[in-house]
Write a structure and sequence with these properties.
9 helices; 159 residues; globular; mainly alpha
Length: 159
């Protein structure tokens, strides 16, 4: 159906663009794997944000993905612990990956979202999280560079 007769076509098209970008960063053609990784990222990050920051993040998502983001959300139970081990465990379980694969996938999704979000949105999300978790989201190489450059404080200085 064309965009003129299908009111959902633009939303579906935008969702597909986002999944393709995520799949490219993951190095796969598997859109289901890209969807699982994106869903895991959205839920795992969302659960570590306060309600206001989580709502702000949801407003940056395309309509179709906003539904994925809100699925199963219990605002009365957030934020949950911010430590990297609990983040990676939740991400791995949600995406059906090993913890090492989860680490790589989380960084790849973060990289894709940095391109897809409005400028500064990812910075706003990362500012809500401890440096140790930001390093996981950015990937060990990039997180280490930012720490060395003074963008992030040392883990001891920031909870």
């Amino acid at each position: 159906m064309s965009h003129h007769t299908d009111p959902f076509a633009p939303t579906i098209h935008t969702g597909r663009i986002w999944l393709r970008t995520i799949a490219d960063r993951l190095g796969t053609d598997d859109r289901m794997a890209a969807h699982q990784a994106l869903r895991a990222w959205l839920h795992t990050v969302r659960d570590r944000l306060d309600i206001g920051a989580a709502a702000h993040l949801s407003a940056q998502l395309p309509t179709l993905l906003r539904g994925v983001y809100c699925e199963g959300w219990m605002p009365g139970r957030v934020p949950v612990p911010h430590d990297p081990p609990s983040f990676l465990l939740q991400f791995a379980r949600s995406a059906d990956l090993s913890e090492e694969e989860a680490r790589r996938s989380a960084a790849a999704v973060t990289d894709a979202l940095a391109q897809l979000f409005s400028p500064g949105q990812l910075d706003h999300v990362l500012a809500q999280l401890p440096a140790s978790l930001c390093r996981v989201l950015l990937g060990s190489d990039f997180g280490g560079i930012l720490t060395a450059a003074g963008v992030f404080e040392s883990p001891e200085a920031r909870p």
